[in-house]
Sequence to fold (451 residues):
Amino acid sequence: MLLKTVCLVSSIILNLLFIIYIYVGGQWNHLSWSSRAAAEAEAVAAISCSGHGRAYLDGLVVDGNEPVCECNTCFTGSDCSHFIPHCTADADSGDPLFLEPFWMQHLASSALVVAGWHRLSYSYNHNTFISPELEKLIRKLHTVVGNAVIENRFIVFGAGSTQVLNAAAYALSLENTSSPAGIVASVPYYPLYKQQAEYFNSERFKFLGDAYTWRNRSDASTNMIEIVNSPNNPDGQLKKAIVHGPIVKTIYDHAYYWPHFTPIPAPADGDLMVFTLSKLTGHAGSRFGWAVIKDETVFNRMLTHMQLNSIGISKDSQLRAFKLLNAVLEEGNEIFDFAYLTMKTRWERLIKTLSLSKRISLQKLNPQYCTFYNKVRELSPAYAWLKCEREEDKDCYAVLKAANIIGRQGNLFGADNRHVRLSLVKSQDDFDILIERLHKLVAEEDGAQTM
Fold:
């Protein structure tokens, strides 16, 4: 009896081992091409660069085809281990590298292996340039976060919010009219609004400057398009439309309307709302944005613009956005908690550093109730909007540059040059160096020579 039992158990074990060999071992053999791709990706990811840089699969290589470390600001050397003393704190660009550590902690859920034959066609099935499954994820995301009304709305994709904003301007400007539509935005405004209008030099629209100068005008013959950036770049304020009238249309740029940058008091409910992946997940380089649109005619005009401008949006960008948003939704609130804590901590350090300064002031940020976190909370915007208070400091950019800090001049935002924008969303190295330079500037105020 004992012998039969032993034989039966042995038989079961052998069969299990055989099944594992067939289904697991066979699967490994079947997935050999993806195993090689995964091994290449993991080998690059394992290069630490001393925590002050990154190696990339498509980066420069040295002998043996090992990718070279690309170092953060103020670090150098083959492994980025050497700090450069007295280097300049670069707080100019809005590169959202502060989210890189989050994705380093979520390698498996965000990783992507793509076959060489993936999506060779210009379009998806049913002759559309928009991934239906990605659109479903975007709708679900807005519902979960509660930052936009998406019921009975149309969605169009673009190469970042940059292309989407341009498509929106074309869609909202009147056709067959003798005068172009006037694009306005309240000061301080995101420089791209003016730069795009002037660069494309279209007969359909032109930039007319500050929205406040048009608020009380009674000229009903001018078709107006107001771009409302909320939260606003550069000062983080939640803004509303200023210009109203029968032929005034509004584009709501909600690139930063996510819980890590601002309280979400209510779902945004504009006729045309623009969002971007870069300020949600940090993947600015993927160049993916979208618009949520109420009017079907405007939606179709924007689709036509996208088709004529770029024959749709990169299928690779859409696939990556699909993978990333899946990971975001699977993790619940984790990305928002991580990003909010990071931004909140940075703002606390910045406020503490500048609290003793009589020379430099920060924008005022009033707490608001957030429906996402169900509490009153502070704003934690992507940028600090600094003002030099001394009468002689008419060029705040020059004041900061002399202190080894690079920001973005106030006049680019339609404001005066007493203002400077500092980016708070770059890498931790960038932020630490910025705080160090600001601390030194404040410490030297008493008895320092006027710059």
